[in-house]
Amino acid sequence: MRVFVTGASGWIGSAVVPELIDAGHQVVGLARSDASAAALTAAGADVVRGTVDDLDALRDAAAASDGVIHLAFKHDIAFTGDFLGAAEADRRAVDAFGDVLAGTGRPLVIASGVAGLATGRVATEQDRPTIDGSPTSVRAATSQAVLALAPRDVRASVVRLSPTCHGEGDNGFMASLVAMARAHGVSGYIGDGANRWPAVHRLDAAKLFRLAFEKAPAGSVLHGVAEEGVAIRDVAEVIGRHLDLPVSSVAPEDAAEHFSWLSGFLGLDAPASHTLTGELLGWRPTHPGLIEDLDKGHYFVAPAA
After folding, report:
1. How many CB atoms neighbour CB 1 within 10 A?
2. How confident is the model at residue 118 (pLDDT cuts 50, 70, 90)?
3. Quick one: average pLDDT of 66-77?
4. Angle at 7 between CA 167 and CA 19, to 5 degrees
5. 289 near 199, Cβ under 8 Å?
6. Could you tell me which residue ranges the NAD-dependent epimerase/dehydratase domain spans (predicted)?
């Protein structure tokens, strides 16, 4: 099938594209720069130039495809003070896809997150996010809008990703923790560090997106979770060992100063299950877990001067 992928040259998208191509699909990727276009061409994909704000380009590409995997999100503005703006742009893109795909039975798969779904227990695919008007809940509302496309004959599904989709080349949360440990001379965690993050290797996540595109029933909620919950203190200890730094607790009231933008995420206790996802699609993660991946050492290669 012909698959239109946004965010195709990003961290997850650059794994999804070869996963789709290896399975025999034709991929058309959205590229906003010459570098992204070149990377997609080298990977064997066709290219549509534009951004998630180019709604006409999104509609045309979706109409010419057998379905859409939407991974793009304006992280550049989301984590520099305008998360609401990024979430609103995401919603406009999803609404554009929904209008084009309505009545076709074609798939629309989008990325969302598992963090914050449940408090004090393991989140499952049956949990729904709280919509309270906050910037983060605006993005969560987009996932609900996608599921609401199912009665309009769109084979819509939502893949909720773990807070960390790790692997070699990762520049996300784990790489940021390593950088902060270097900068402070200590590998820190908040409080007792017993809070847990689900985790998934990016290659396992890529396979889940392919399976969702190929066969997820309309209205499916899927969890890109390989490990139910990894204690943040265990992560800090691995980082400290590899960097030969002390490992220490950071008091909650000092977390914002120490961890900057990451502090709001790092203290979350957000265990999540993928049991229903496995039963529905036969998805079985096979790549290294988070601690094993950290121990491979690629996160600790010293940055170039």
Report:
1. 15
2. confident
3. 93
4. 55
5. yes
6. 3-216
> Of 123, 130, 155, which Cα lies nearest the Cα of 144?
130
CB neighbours (10 Å) of residue 107?
24
Q: What is the pLDDT of residues 95-104, one digit of tens each?
A: 999 999 999 9
Please count the other Cβ atoms lying within 10 Å of the Cβ belonging to residue 194: 12
Q: Is the pLDDT of residue 304 over 60?
A: no
**Is-contact 40 47, C-beta < 8 A?**
yes
Amino acid code (one letter) for 116? G
Provide φ and ψ at 212, rounded to 5°. -65, -45
Q: How far apart are CA 38 and CA 185, in angstroms?
A: 39
Query: Is 3 within 8 Å of 212 (Cβ atoms)?
Result: no
Give the integer Cα–Cα distance in Å for 294 and 284: 21
Q: What type of residue is 69? A: I
Q: Which residue type, as a one-letter code, is found at position 279?
A: E
Which three-class secondary structure state does DSSP give residue 190? strand
CA 226 to each of CA 11, 163, 186: distance values in angstroms, whole numbers, following the listed order:
17, 11, 28
Q: How do residues 36-56 score in pLDDT, each as one tens digit?
A: 999 999 999 999 999 999 999
Q: Is 293 exposed, middle or buried (0-12, 13-18, 19+ CB in 10 A)?
A: buried
Whole-number pLDDT of residue 207: 98
Residue environment code for 116-153, b if the CB has 16+ CB neighbours within 10 A, otherwise e: bbbeeebbbbebebeeeeeebbbbbbbbebbbebbeee
Helix extents (H) in the chain: 13-22, 34-43, 55-63, 75-78, 83-101, 135-147, 173-184, 202-215, 232-243, 255-259, 263-266, 275-281, 290-295
Q: Which two tokens stand for residue 126?
A: 């049956």
Confidence label for 290 from pLDDT (cuts 50, 70 and 90): very high
pLDDT digits (tens, 9 = 90+) for 199-218: 999 999 999 999 999 999 99
